[in-house]
Amino acid sequence: MTTTAPATTTTAHGEHRPTLLDVDGLTVRFRLRETVVHAVTDLRLTVRPGELLAVVGESGCGKSVLAHALLGLLPGNATVTGQARLHPPAGEPVDLLGCGERRLARQVRGRALGLVPQSPATALTPVRTGRRLLEETLRAHDHSRRDAATAADRLAVDVGLDPADLDRYPHELSGGMAQRLVTALALAPDPPLLLADEPTTGLDRPLVDHTLDLLRRRCDTGAAVLLITHDLAAARRVADTVAVMYASRLVEHRPTEALFDTPIHPYTAGLLDALPERAFRPVPGHPPMLTDLPPGCAFAPRCDRATDICRTPPPPMPHGPGRAACHHPLGASA
Amino acid sequence: MTGALVAHQITVRYDRQRVLDRVDLRIAAGETVGLRGPSGSGKSTLARVLALLRAPDSGHVTLDGQRLPGVRHRLPAAVRTRVAILFQSPRAATDPRLSLADVIAEPLRATGTPRERARARASELADLVGLTPDLLARRPHAVSDGQLQRACLARALVHRPAYLLCDEATAMLDASTQAHLAAVVTDYQRRHGAGVLLVTHDASLMARWATRVVELPAGGRPTD
């Protein structure tokens, strides 16, 4: 498998570039009948224009909840705290968690912050063809009727869909075609930040690479993408920075090459060791339940470096141009 | 010709489109055959034919040298339970109304195994695939894809099949869960001498896991 070098990398002092998304202390809890699900805990990250950030982790670690929290799409039993600010290049900054449904619906979702949803089958309106959905979206975002028709064809080609297939209804599409259609729908308003939640599910390898390269090209022209994926090879192929999520927290967020070559957090190292081209050895033990997280480091019960200090939660510490949250970081002399 | 699951000159058409054209494939006991090919080349269809779920339009399947006269319930339980299949999407392959314990035990109940014995065997297998008892009481909506696919693997192994077919079974799982399921399958294979078919388009997974790779070209015939 080839890895393409990212066209842009975050510099150690990239602070002079304005941030596009600034998340600080984001915490999401779900109240269930007898328990509380700790889905996202004290999450902090920034995304800059032109950056492709990949969030990786096991299924059920809270990756998708992060995306839905930013878009205000969580169900009523969710409690969200913390800060999330979007600074679109045109227009005023938006407080995503505090601005209210009206503003989110009219100015943010789709326009400023796009979403490629995880299960395309449930995201498409079943009684409309792909073309109708796409043209409707384009016309809602300032395309004329005539212009929308050609733009729809172009978007279809961009995502690797035959324009003739746009005339099908969602139930006539294969899983992979539906996936490409929802990607085209998310790209139609050309949002400065796109949240792509497992956008390559159900695609064959060539189409996976096609979709990933499409996201990469968006970033190379100044937009940004937050890619949520379980596929480490995909992250390595296109991401500038990779954030590893474990049991509701980010445990490591660093430039892609550095993270893959010299992981700092033992969980990152374990996940990389599980790759078939590496040791093909699973991380020992099981991920904790999000309803019953241990106090302190959630990875400690599976970690061979754990000591007493791991019973207190490790704060995220700077490591070069990135951050990691571990009391016993790998490769540290201390 | 014993100790193998073999597809002989299999042809399958969907409507007028021929997806498999006189395809031969042999999975010997103890080996792991990797099957790769472009999208739409009929990999999954071939896996379904070998799993005795779909009758080919022409050609036939032999199991340990014995030619099988039909598919699904036309075959005696003792024959059809010798082949098991694991699909890509565990959600699409499980009944949302059943607890994971019942998902795993379902094939045993279908063949008339007494409830107590089925339950004991299910918990033994749950342990093997790494499902904790608290997960066994849950239904599919309350577990992750990785956990549900573990249950599907336990279900596939419940009759101790001689052949296990994995159709992109780890494609939607994270690296650690993938490595764990592969280790469970490899360990089962070593202890029972089972033959395994691995359908995947992940080149590094193929290189690491398969002992032999067969290419299925689009609409054509495989070359060993």
What can you tell me about this protein's structure?
Chain A has nine helices and twelve strands. Chain A has helices at residues 63-70, 101-108, 130-140, 145-158, 175-187, 205-220, 232-238, 256-261, 266-273; strands spanning 21-31, 36-47, 52-56, 78-86, 94-95, 113-116, 193-197, 224-229, 241-246, 249-255, 317-319, 322-324. In chain A, the strands form two sheets. Chain A has an eight-stranded mixed sheet, sandwiched between helices. In chain A, strands 2-1-4-5 form a four-stranded antiparallel sheet, with helices on one face. Mean pLDDT of chain A is 91; it is low at 1-15. Chain B is α/β, with parallel strands linked by helices and 224 residues long. Chain B has two domains: 1-82 and 161-224, P-loop containing nucleotide triphosphate hydrolases (Rossmann fold), CATH 3.40.50; 96-159, no CATH class. Chain B contains eight helices and nine strands. A five-stranded parallel sheet of chain B has the order 6-7-8-3-9, sandwiched between helices. In chain B, strands 2-1-4-5 form a four-stranded antiparallel sheet, covered by helices on one side. In chain B, α4 crosses α6. The A-B interface holds A 1, 56-60, 176, 201, 204-207, 230, 232-233, 270-272, 274-277, 280-283, 286, 289 and B 38-39, 130, 132, 134, 143-147, 172-180, 182-183, 201-205, 207-209.
Largest protein-protein interface: A-B, 28 and 29 residues
Give the strand order, joined by hyphens, for the main sheet of chain B.
Answer: 6-7-8-3-9
Helix-strand string of chain A: EEEHEEHEHHHEHEHEEHHEE
Q: Any idea what the CATH architecture of the domain at 1-8 and 16-98 and 194-199 and 224-334 in chain A is?
A: 3-Layer(aba) Sandwich
SSE order of chain B: EEEHEEHEHHHHEHEHE
Uncertain residue ranges of chain A: 1-15
Count all strands of chain B and give the number: 9
Estimate nothing, just give the exact number of structural domains of chain B: 2
In DSSP terms (H or I, runs of 4 or more residues), the helix count of chain B works out at 8
Going by CATH, the homologous superfamily of the largest domain in chain B would be P-loop containing nucleotide triphosphate hydrolases
**CATH fold label of the largest domain in chain B:** Rossmann fold
**CA distance, first residue to last residue of chain A:** 36 Å
The CATH homologous superfamily of the domain at 1-8 and 16-98 and 194-199 and 224-334 in chain A corresponds to: P-loop containing nucleotide triphosphate hydrolases
Strand content of chain A: 15-25%
Shape of chain A: globular
What is the residue-mean pLDDT of chain B, rounded to a whole number?
Answer: 92
The CATH class of the largest domain in chain B turns out to be: Alpha Beta
Strands of the biggest beta sheet of chain A: in what spatial order? 6-7-8-3-9-10-12-11
